[in-house]
Amino acid sequence: MANLKQSIKRIKQNNKRKLINKMTVSIVRTYVKKFLKSLIIKDLALSLKAYSLATSKIDKSVTKGVFHKNKANRLKSRLFLRLKKIGM
Fold first, then answer.
1. Which is a Gene Ontology cellular component entry for this protein (predicted)?
2. Contact 59/72 with Cβ under 8 angstroms?
C-alpha cells in the first residue's frame, strides 16, 4: 500500500481513468459490432450510417487518449474495406 499522499492520489486517479478508458473501449466495440451486423443485413443506407457512427466514436477515443491514432486509422480502414465489399 502506498504511504505518500501523492502516490495515494495517483492510485485513485489511475483507477478512475481505467474505468473511463474501459467504458470508452466498450462503446467503440459496441458501435463496431452494430456496423458489422448492418453489413450482414446488406442494407447500404444502414451500413453507411453505422460506419459514420463507428468512425466518429473511434475518433473520439483517439482525442481522449484511449486509442493510438495508428490503431484508430487501421480499424477505420478495415471497416471501410468491409463496407466497400458490399458495394458502396
1. small ribosomal subunit
2. yes
Question: Measured between alpha carbons, how far apart are the two ends of the chain, in Å?
Answer: 56
- Which tens digits make up the pLDDT trace of 7-17? 999 999 999 99
pTM of the model: 0.85
Give the helix ranges, DSSP H, for 1-88.
5-41, 44-63, 69-85
Please state which of the ranges 27-31, 54-58, 82-86 shows the lowest mean pLDDT: 82-86
Complete domains list, the chain, with CATH: 5-85 (1.20.58.110)
73-79 long-range CB contacts below 8 Å, 24 or more apart? Answer: 75/32, 79/32, 79/35, 79/51, 79/54, 79/55
Task: Quote the CA–CA distance of 87 and 81 in Å, as a whole number.
Answer: 10
Q: Cell numbers at residue 81, please? A: 474495406
